[in-house]
Design brief:
two-stranded antiparallel ribbon; single chain; about 60% helix; four-stranded antiparallel β-sheet
Length: about 190
C-alpha cells in the first residue's frame, strides 16, 4: 500500500505544481509582451476600438496591421470608408500616437521613448516579474503542503518529492528571470 500511495500521490502533486508554475511563467511573458518598448508590433493596437457599422469593434477586425519598420505601423482598412473612423480611434486612444492617412493606408509612427519613461517601464516589468515569482512560490508551497498531508507515504519519499519540487521551482524562477533580462534589454535599447 505504501508504494502505490507514493507512486500515485507525489508524482501527481509534482505534475500539478509544474502546471501551476508553467502558467505563472506564461502569464508573466504575456504581461511583458503588452508593454510598449518603442518597437512597432501589430498587437500594440489590439486595445483600440473603432465605432463602425453601428457598433464598437476592435481595429484588427476592420484592417490589417503591419510593422514594416521598427518605429512604424501601417494600418490598411478593408473598407476604405472606415479610414477616418480608424484614424480618429487611434489618435483618441491613450497610446499617444499621431496617425496620418496617405492614400488608402494609415501610417502610425511610434515616438521614441525618453529616458525617464524607459526607467518607469523597467520598474513595471520588475513588478510583473515579481508577481510571477510569487505565483511560482505559491505553487511550490501548495505542493509541499499536499505532500506533507499524504498518508501512507514514507518520509524519504516526501523528501525526494520536495527535492523535485524545489528543482521545478528553481527552473521556473530562472525562466522568469531570463524573460525579465530580455525585456529589460529591449526597453533600454535606444
Amino acid at each position: 500500500m505504501t508504494v502505490s500511495a507514493a507512486t500515485t500521490g507525489i508524482p501527481q502533486v509534482l505534475k500539478d505544481a509544474r502546471t501551476a508554475m508553467d502558467k505563472a511563467i506564461e502569464n508573466t511573458r504575456r504581461e511583458f509582451s503588452s508593454i510598449r518598448t518603442g518597437k512597432a508590433t501589430a498587437n500594440l493596437l489590439d486595445t483600440i476600438r473603432v465605432e463602425a457599422y453601428g457598433q464598437s469593434m476592435p481595429v484588427n477586425q476592420l484592417a490589417s496591421i503591419n510593422a514594416p519598420e521598427p518605429r512604424l505601423l501601417v494600418v490598411t482598412p478593408w473598407d476604405k470608408g472606415q479610414i477616418q473612423a480608424i484614424e480618429k480611434a487611434i489618435r483618441d486612444s491613450e497610446l499617444g500616437l499621431n496617425p496620418s492617412t496617405q492614400g488608402g493606408v494609415i501610417r502610425v509612427p511610434l515616438p521614441s521613448l525618453n529616458e525617464q519613461r524607459r526607467r518607469d517601464l523597467v520598474k513595471v516589468v520588475h513588478k510583473l516579474a515579481e508577481e510571477g515569482r510569487i505565483a511560482v512560490r505559491h505553487a511550490r508551497t501548495d505542493g509541499r503542503e499536499r505532500m506533507k498531508k499524504m498518508e501512507k507515504v514514507s518520509e524519504d519519499d516526501v523528501k525526494h518529492g520536495e527535492k523535485d519540487l524545489q528543482k521545478a521551482h528553481d527552473d521556473a524562477i530562472a525562466k522568469i528571470d531570463e524573460s525579465l533580462k530580455g525585456k529589460e534589454a529591449e526597453i533600454l535599447e535606444v
